[in-house]
Amino acid sequence: MHPDRFERRHIGPSPGETKEMLDYLGVSSLDELIEQTVPASIRLKKPFSFTDFEGVLGEFEYLGHLKEIAANNRVMRNFIGMGYYGTITPSVIARNIFHNPGWYTQYTPYQAEIAQGRLESLLNYQTMVTDLTGLPISNASLLDEGTAASEAMNMFYHEKNKRAKAGEEANEFFVSDKVFPQTIDILRTRAVPHGIKLVVGDWKTAQFTDKTFGVLLQYPDSEGCVSDYRPFVEKAKANGVFVCVAADILSLALLTPPGEWGADVAVGNTQRFGVPIGYGGPHAAYFACSEDFKRQIPGRIIGVSVDKHGHRALRMALQTREQHIRREKATSNICTAQALLANMAAMYAVYHGPDGIRGIATHVHEYACAAAEMLSAGGYNVVHTRFFDTVRVEADSQKMATIRSKAEAAGYNFFYDNTGIQIAFDETVTERDLAAIGGIFGVQPGPEKSGSLAPGSLRRDSAYLTHQVFNIYHTESDMMRYIKRLENKDLSLMHSMITLGSCTMKLNAATEMMPVSWDEWANMHPFMPAEYARGYAQIIAELEKYLCDVTGFDACSLQPNSGAQGEYAGLMVIRAYIGCNGRYGSGGSGLR
Amino acid sequence: MAGMEVVVVACDERGNIDVADLKAKAEQYSDRLSCLMVTYPSTHGVFETSINEICDIIHQHGGKVYMDGANMNAQVGLTSPAAIGADVCHLNLHKTFAIPHGGGGPGMGPICCNNSLAPYLPGHVFAKMGGEQGTTAVSAAPWGSASILLISYAYIKMLGAEGVTNATKYAILNANYMKARLEGAYQILYTGENGRCAHEMIVDMRPFKSLAGAEDIAKRLMDYGFHAPTLSFPVAGTVMIEPTESESKAELDRFCDALLSIRKELDEIASGDYSHDDNVLHNAPHTVEETTADNWSHPYTREKAAFPLPYLRQGWKFWATVGRIDQAYGDRNLVCTCPPMEEYA
């Protein structure tokens, strides 16, 4: 075993310093201090241990160990879509942000005077989101598309009912059945405590009642179809119903954005702007809204102000809504931000600029068109003629099984449901992929890749990313220096200790961080077949077990993607327990 | 909260949960009590000895105990949420288990619970997971931000049971060392029965409020090359310091030296050396433009403004790039997208 142990790298005080500190405190040993600090009544009765733990690994050994587990993840070409897409993280961003503790070890920018770098980048993010969605206000990110949609639902519910008497609230939220299934699932979770009734159905035949307060649409929808929602949105507006659209951020480079056809809110994932899929995250979800909601918008908003010298200075705006100031009245209870990932997405837009983004969107769309033409010519029924990146073909279960087995043998994942197969293209697509897909489906690629987005009236003609920041850093030298200039403005753990109470700003060791960007962990789709993600399954199983050891509990869920989500999940679990155990009668009446 | 009504329980003068008040409220709401939410060690940085009794009271009235895992870095390997009597907790993997804060995210907040609650853990439409009667999903992806789970996994694999326990012990040592160094100059709010803090402590800045506010002290720390501790939480007019185990004595001393130096600067205001509205705290942070400008009108020197301690000349100086920010101005004139480039001075 190599003599260098990680523990001495992680723990600050050396043996000599430890002795000096203990002397200063007048105790003879660390254990004596612990006895004075942690009440005996709650101390563990025997030394702590991890279940089935094979021995402590040194840093080098650990990386070798993780390489072995990584081999159980199969790196495949993922054309599954459903909110997660292949993307190319520009190397200049990977190296200077994703792998750079100057960008990943800072705290939330409450101390704005030493956080102007990431505040500027987050303002770029908000500008990018407002431009692409066509809505004037954006926050600086939420956890994921599903929780962003639920925040919209809650915001609409409170706005609609702010003067309603108890028991007379408008409580129906219409959700198109072509919204991503995981989003609908989260909406169900979040609807329960408010007594909101979800109505899931076909938007084309939806009827509003006097109880309908809002709707959610997906654009393009979960089958890839680009629909013209404008008449529907007009009808909603006429009925006083608020509209949220979950929109694919890249598609908005080519499609008329929701803000231009009346949406009150747009939400979505910005993952495909250069952030690895990572088997589900982390990514930044966006939330944009109309002026009407600017004081209700959930989450953190970066705003422009001035410093005492009268110079432009950025900071988080409308802080009075934040929980640390008015805890009971906070509007942003379960909406942690994803600053690092928002910064990566913003830098992707800065680096590519409007022409680059349009070029990438066009590239993706043309491949989808080529695939559609190829499949159609080969006798497949391509279900939707109007699409951006996702092609859906009809298939019976026998056909589907054949295709699936050929696809997986060739290293390709598509999305399958009861009646069809979907192929979602992304910017990583090449001719080889098209040929391979042709091979899987038994058809030949045609010579042409031109295609049309279909409804001409939904083709975007408004400009976006026009601000200078998106138009001047397009060489790697300029980009690298821009990133560095911003980094230099921010105090991080690279400068000094950050003593934030209850935030535990401990070492984030380089060895712990490095594997996150390995292909075998980064390029895994959360909805790919479990049999190809056995490496992840092993990590998940082991970590769940270790966390149960740490807490002394029996079971673990790794699903909540922030502390606040964890609290919410914990309370919902208690709620379910109480409801199921009939403590307050069948309805759990004690829970309002 | 999650559709439940919140009933707040009082604290006693030591900052601990008022057990009599808790008991009375648990009885009063017995037919509707669903759970207690508690942070442990408390948000005041203290291991409360009555925690087992507190959990028992809730259980007697049919409730469950939810423990906030924010302060797990004081528990790992020494005690546990189960040992204090809780039923479910979340863990901030971005705090206790080494995931970086990312400048304001990402994080991860998995929950652990005992067998009574396990059947209700959340499921997912695209994955077989969760309890038999699991709730619907809370996150879009089955395992949340799965890729960063690797960081916590690495932390555990490379430290092992003894290492993670030592991390806790050192977090407590570092906090108590800082407390000992700062005591005398500052008053530490709330400590345990032996006068010890857990892994963090609250330093009371209210005694100085006629001289400078806690915020002034926070901003002045920037001139010393430090980020402020948590400000005015959980008590207004205080700062809460958590050093963690990862900092050496040398670094702890540097931070303590800065705070002790600031205490002297407070004394200089008290003694009338500097006025209340023109002193190093009131004017902090000092930018490089301000400090190097031909025009300098403050009653203290530029050196005092920017290099108040010798270490700052040894490579530790960090310059805030803007002066104190006017919060209200920006809220009155809300601008949330990039202003024209000419304004990027």
Short summary of the structure?
The complex is a heterodimer of chains A (592) and B (345). Chain A is an alpha/beta fold and 592 residues long. Chain A is built from 18 helices and 15 strands.
Describe the structure.
The complex is a heterodimer of chains A (592) and B (345). Helix content of chain A is 38%, strand content 11%. Chain A is α/β, with parallel strands linked by helices and 592 residues long. In chain A, the strands form 4 sheets. A 7-stranded mixed sheet of chain A has the order 2-8-7-6-5-3-4, with helices on both faces. In chain A, strands 11-14-13 form a 3-stranded antiparallel sheet, with helices on one face. In chain A, strands 1-12 form a two-stranded parallel ribbon. In chain A, helix 7 (116-133) packs across helix 14 (476-488) and helix 8 (145-160) runs parallel beside helix 9. Chain A starts with 6 loop residues before the first helix and ends in a 12-residue tail after the last helix. Chain B has 345 residues and is of the alpha/beta class. Chain B folds into 2 domains: 19-149, 3-Layer(aba) Sandwich (Aspartate Aminotransferase, domain 2), CATH 3.40.640.10; 205-326, no CATH class. In chain B, the strands form 2 sheets. Chain B has a 4-stranded mixed sheet with strand order 1-2-3-4. In chain B, helix 1 (19-28) runs parallel beside helix 2 (51-60) and helix 4 (149-182) crosses helix 6 (249-270). At the A-B interface, helix 2, helix 3, helix 4, helix 6 and helix 7 of A face strand 2, helix 3, strand 3, strand 4 and helix 4 of B. Strand 9 of chain A pairs antiparallel with strand 9 of chain B, so a sheet runs across the interface.
